[in-house]
Amino acid sequence: QLVESGGGLVQPGGSLRLSCAASGFTLDHSSIGWFRQVPGKEREGVLCISGSDGSTNYADSVKGRFTISRDNSKNTVFLQMNSLKPEDTAVYSCAASGWAMCHLEAYEYDYWGQGTQVTVSA
User: Fold this and answer.
1) Please, is 40 exposed, middle or buried when counting C-beta atoms within 10 Å of its C-beta (0-12, 13-18, 19+)?
2) Position 28 pLDDT exceeds 90
């Protein structure tokens, strides 16, 4: 099971840190992805971290603003979001994959959290 937390309302230019906590399995060898979705639009892969070597992939829309990290001692992956924009508003979900290297393709991920709402608005 994956559980996200940390969403909320933030002003443009602000920051949020989302957490993705796992129970029932360990995340340290899993590739973890963060995805977001707006009603009426397709789910978008935001960024991911590979289970094999910790390498990351980012969507162009978040490069330089978002970072991903993991704390294996807490079995948790974090999404740090800085310089938030109104277009970042979405439901953010984390997902786990058994693939050694991560990609921003939803079909590669087997386990999903329920999502947390992020709203960027003045």
Assistant:
1) exposed
2) no
Share of residues in the chain with pLDDT > 70 (%): 100
Six-digit token pair at 17?
Answer: 């840190």
pLDDT of 26 > 90? The answer is no
Angle at 113 between CA 43 and CA 50, to 5 degrees: 75
Q: C-alpha distances in angstroms, 115 versus 12, 36, 93?
A: 21, 8, 4
How buried is residue 46: exposed, middle or buried, by Cβ count under 10 Å (0-12/13-18/19+)?
Answer: buried
Is the pLDDT confidence value at 15 over 90? yes
Tokens of 42: 């397709």
Measure the CA–CA gap between 56 and 103, rounded to whole angstroms. Answer: 9
For position 119, what pLDDT does the model report? 98
**CB < 8 Å & 24+ apart, contacts of 40-48:** 43/106, 44/90, 45/103, 45/104, 45/105, 45/106, 46/79, 46/92, 46/104, 47/79, 47/104, 48/102, 48/103, 48/104
